[in-house]
Design goal:
Layout: E1 2-6, H1 17-31, E2 35-38, E3 51-55, H2 61-70, E4 74-78, H3 89-103, H4 111-120, E5 124-127, H5 130-139, E6 147-149, H6 168-171, E7 177-180, H7 189-195, E8 200-203, H8 209-219, E9 223-225, H9 234-242, E10 245-248, H10 257-264, E11 269-272, E12 286-289, H11 294-305, H12 309-318, H13 324-339, H14 344-357
Parallel strand pairs: 1-2, 1-3, 3-4, 4-5, 5-6, 7-8, 7-10, 8-9, 10-11, 11-12
């Protein structure tokens, strides 16, 4: 069984959560003996693979998935759609897409139409959470039987003891707020800085240098920038472990890896309420907030910062089952069933697996 991975070209020009998801998923599947590689779309045919696993439903990916189907290849899609609790918006999206399609003589589709095409061409869709499943089935009108919930995992090294010393500039900070992720208006680091009087440590690529400078000016000596850190850098785990709280106050997050990584290091997390985590809020361990409500954000930060040692230890228990090895073991039967359909017993096993994962 030969598996090809595809995503949109611009993805590989930066590094973030989706790249980590692809890399860790692929590595875990290889450990199970799966032959898997990223497809060279210039020099290889999609038809040379038994199955294509696509990551992202947008960014023009519908064209790649349409081509895969035309070459007779089975397709699994991890769409990574942003959570949207207000599903009423999709009525408007569908109408606008219909208008564009009609008035362009069936030539133009909106982003909604392109994403829906990607979803329609997939044989199986992996959502990160029940909330994303709702977007897929109710927002994009895709049959639920084509979906199953497979959440992101956590790197094993976050489960280990964190002994790497912090840089001298950060070593003496007490009760700091840690914000990991690309430095941008969308991630809302400035909102976090303005919502708390605590020291704030930022880490991640500066997508907008001007925005980083604005954050540094707003917080003055309270704000520290640790630079761009690889997800495997032991310093990242240490920054998580020594923080009072990890905050991700983005507008929305499909599958916030930094939140579960933080919790696995024993640090409570505060996350935007528009998130695709497969977990329920449980203060002070994990709290969901309106990112635009600075009062609510400040309150959540203080609740998390007051967590007892026992409560911090409980953070690790809450995410203990989220391993990339577990993710791979959930994906492999789906690959096998699509490439080599088995008997009724195998189909029953797949249905049981589907039911179990959709209750997570």
């Amino acid at each position: 069984m030969k598996i090809g991975i595809v995503s949109y070209p611009g993805l590989w020009q930066r590094h973030g959560g989706l790249q980590v998801q692809i890399e860790r998923t692929a590595a875990a599947l290889r450990c199970l003996g799966v032959e898997l590689k990223i497809v060279d779309l210039v020099n290889e045919k999609l038809g040379s693979y038994d199955l294509i696993h696509a990551f992202s439903a947008g960014h023009g990916m519908h064209v790649t998935l349409e081509e895969a189907k035309s070459q007779g290849v089975k397709v699994v899609l991890s769409p990574v759609l942003q959570p949207e609790p207000n599903l009423q918006k999709f009525y408007l999206y569908r109408f606008i897409n219909w208008l564009a399609f009609q008035f362009s003589s069936n030539e133009i589709k909106t982003s909604y139409g392109q994403i829906r095409n990607s979803l329609k061409n997939a044989d199986m869709i992996f959502s990160l959470s029940a909330l994303e499943t709702g977007v897929i089935t109710q927002g994009y009108k895709i049959p639920k039987e084509k979906t199953m919930v497979i959440p992101n995992g956590i790197d094993d090294h976050f489960f280990e003891t964190h002994t790497v010393p912090l840089p001298s500039a950060l070593a003496n900070l007490q009760g700091y707020v840690f914000v990991a992720g690309s430095i941008s208006d969308y991630k809302n680091q400035l909102g976090v800085i303005e919502a708390t009087d605590r020291p704030v440590v930022l880490a991640g690529p500066a997508k907008s240098p001007g925005y980083l400078e604005k954050c540094m000016r707003a917080g003055g000596s309270r704000v520290h920038y640790a630079g761009m850190l690889d997800s495997k850098d032991p310093l990242l785990a240490s920054l998580y472990a020594h923080a009072a709280v990890n905050v991700l106050a983005s507008y929305r997050e499909a599958g916030p890896l930094c939140s579960v990584e933080s919790m696995d290091c024993g640090t409570p997390a505060v996350v935007t309420e528009k998130n695709g985590l497969p977990l329920k809020a449980q203060a002070p361990l994990l709290q969901f907030v309106n990112s635009n409500d600075k009062g609510a954000l400040k309150h959540a930060i203080e609740v998390a910062a007051q967590a007892s040692p026992a409560e911090r230890a409980a953070c690790r228990e809450l995410v203990a089952d989220l391993r990339w090895s577990t993710v791979a073991k959930s994906i492999l039967p789906v690959y096998q069933n699509l490439v080599e359909p088995k008997n009724a017993d195998s189909n029953l096993f797949q249905q049981n697996l589907h039911n179990k994962l959709n209750t997570m």
